[in-house]
Amino acid sequence: MRRIVATLVLLAASACGGGAGSSGSADEAIAGFDAAQAEPSLHALYDAIRADSAEARAAALEHLGDNERDVRWASAFALSLTAERGESLDALRPLLRSRGLDERLLAAGALAFNGEKAGLPPLIEAITSTELLRFEDPPRPGWHYARSTLIQLTDEDLGLLARPGGRWDPEETQARWKAWWRRNEARVAWTGEYFTVSP
Amino acid sequence: MKRCALLVTLVAGLFIPADAIARTTVTVTGTEIVIRVPIQLASMLEHQRMRNPITGERYDWAQLGEFIARESERFWNEGTTGADAFFGVTPSGGLSAVRYRDCFTIRIVVEVVITPFVKAGRKVKLDGYHYMVFDSKPSGKMVVWDPATPDPNVDTPSAYERSLTGEWTSWEDYFGGAGHELGHLLGLGDDYDHESGESLAGRDGTVMDKGREIDQAIVERIAGLVEASGVTLPECWHGTWSEGNAAMTAGGTFSLTVDAEGRVEGKGTGTQEVAGGGSASYPLEISGRRTPGEFRLVFAGSGGSLEVVTPIDGATARGPWRTGAGQAAYRGTIELECRTCRDDPGG
Q1: Are both B241 and B144 inside the same structural domain?
Q2: What is the largest CA-CA distance in chain A?
Q3: How would you label B158-170 residue by residue, b for 16+ Cβ within 10 Å and e otherwise?
Q4: Is B14 inside a domain boundary?
Q5: In this structure, are B127 and B26 located in the same domain?
Q6: Are B155 and B106 within one domain?
Q7: Which of A70, A197, B135, B322 would bridge B140 by S-S if both were Cys, CB 3.0 to 4.6 A apart?
């Protein structure tokens, strides 16, 4: 019975030209990304990334300089999830200086996640950002992204952790992090899991 | 493409028994509605440890799953999180502070299991769980895909009918973010406009908007989804009685539920005051049966039990309260009002 069911399901799927992983789907998902249809667009993009991350990475690299803002965002987003050391991570580096907060943070998060400490200063800069990031459910501001990323990718606190007796103070926390970076930039090292200050 | 997806779904659905595809499940005991939400987080990074955003400890998968489940439950059931004081948030009370039709309480039970995304070259999918890809990269989104509607503001009972899929990021604090996404696994749509980001009218600050509030409307919507999923909530009646004579007055309040077979179950509190003396209160257990025309209720307390027969008229019931032969001096009235009867309960 199970085999019959599986066969029928496969037949139905193949009659429809395959699934999300079919050739060209990543390119379509990125080039066709439409902010007015954000949820289905994001769904298609995620399907493409989960089906074939290498293909999604290649398509993202191709569209990273697109004139359309939404397509550029979709490229940077796909790249932030699929980037590896080398060409794809290098392609994100210029976005650290982008005028758009989304692009800066997508690049910073991906670089830091891959052990590149160049991603840390934009995250520290965003600790006080109240600007909302695109396509978040529910909408969340830049400081939220910066806070959770710095918590996960370092072994520091400096006002980020919600310890009993503490109080969230973005300006004070940012000042501490800036001082930490000035003091330790040269000694910040990647353990393979997070950044720490080497002795 | 949508039609193709529908064809695949239909062919697959023809052979899957209904009980095998139920995911978010509901149990009703008396006036308590318990909603169980089982979630599989399929992690993109095997064995990665995540950092607790309160203590800074790095958690393994079992600890992290437990942490997410308990914080999500606390967020919904008690309206509080481990970071409230840090962010200066006043706890709202959550579901425990709001009842459905002044009768039912709703409680959420979350079960989280973290697995690898892929094992031996195959995707790991657990039967009976909502399937969320757990991407620990900073830019990962929190999203639940609902195939029932393209409108993110619509409530649908899909989560009670099938395993939903989505994307969760381990970078959220598991306070606001996971609480909101859990709302989608209860069937709730968003309370904000996806294009403008603005709150829908009258929904500013709710958990399904960008806030924390779990208000009466959220509770009504969850109960509506529970019923839309095929669960029939029992009738719920609230009642009072009073009795007395020159030497003593007594009375109390109670609530009871009636299941589909007419079995009655309830609780109440009685009080007794002696003229010129003190007063005492005591708990009561209520059982009995309801027929289309009357209640036959047994009130049991520490002093014994008493059967009272009360005629029903539509959504109300009113009748004499007697303590029985031998104590005929104690007389009064009992009144009940149905809070959940949609049709004529006497019909």
Answers
A1: no
A2: 67
A3: bbbbbbbbbbbbb
A4: yes
A5: yes
A6: yes
A7: B135
3-state SS of B66-112 is HHHHHHHHHHHHCCCCCCHHHHCCCCCCHHHHCCECCCEEEEEEEEE
Find which of A1, A79, A89, A148 to mutate to test the B interface (most B CBs within 10 Å of its CB): A148
B157 and B41 belong to one structural domain: yes
CB contact under 8 A, A162 and B54: yes
Residues 85-114 of B with CB under 8 A from A: 85-88
* pLDDT in single tens digits along all 347 residues of chain B: 233 333 333 333 344 444 445 589 999 988 899 999 999 999 988 878 889 999 999 999 999 899 989 989 999 999 998 888 999 988 889 999 999 988 899 999 999 999 999 998 899 999 999 999 998 899 999 889 988 888 899 999 999 999 999 998 876 665 555 788 999 999 999 999 988 889 999 999 999 998 889 999 999 999 999 999 999 899 999 999 998 877 778 899 999 999 888 999 999 999 988 877 788 899 999 999 999 999 999 999 877 888 899 999 999 999 988 765 555 557 889 999 998 876 544 43
Residue that terminates a domain, selected from B198, B228, B258: B228
CB atoms within 10 A of CB B44: 21
Write out the two tokens for A163: 């310890």
pTM: 0.83
In a shared domain, residues B205 and B312:
no
Gyration radius from chain A CA atoms: 20
| Amino acid residing at B276 | G
Range of the domain at B285: 235-338
Amino acid at B173: D
Is residue B343 in a domain? no
The last residue of one of the domains, among B203, B228, B253, is B228
Q: Which residues of A touch B179 (CB under 8 A)?
A: none
Taking the CA of residue A186 and the nearest CA in chain B, the distance in Å comes to 24
What's the mean pLDDT in A149-155?
96
Say if A166 is an interface residue toward chain B (CB within 8 Å).
yes
Q: Which residue type, as a one-letter code, is found at position B55?
A: T
On whether both B119 and B157 belong to a single domain, the answer is yes
Put simply, whether B274 touches A (Cβ < 8 Å) is no
In chain B, what residues touch A136 (CB-CB under 8 Å)? 141-142
Whether residues B86 and A167 touch (CB distance < 8 A) is answered with yes
The domain spans of chain A are: 1-82, 111-199
Tell me whether residues B209 and A161 touch, CB distance under 8 A: no
Q: For position B297, which CATH number holds?
A: 2.40.128.120
ipTM of the complex: 0.84
Q: How many domains does chain B have?
A: 2
Helix (H) or strand (E) holding B32: strand B32-43
Domain shared by B38 and B105, yes or no: yes
- Rounded distance between C-alpha atoms, residue B322 and residue B234, angstroms: 27
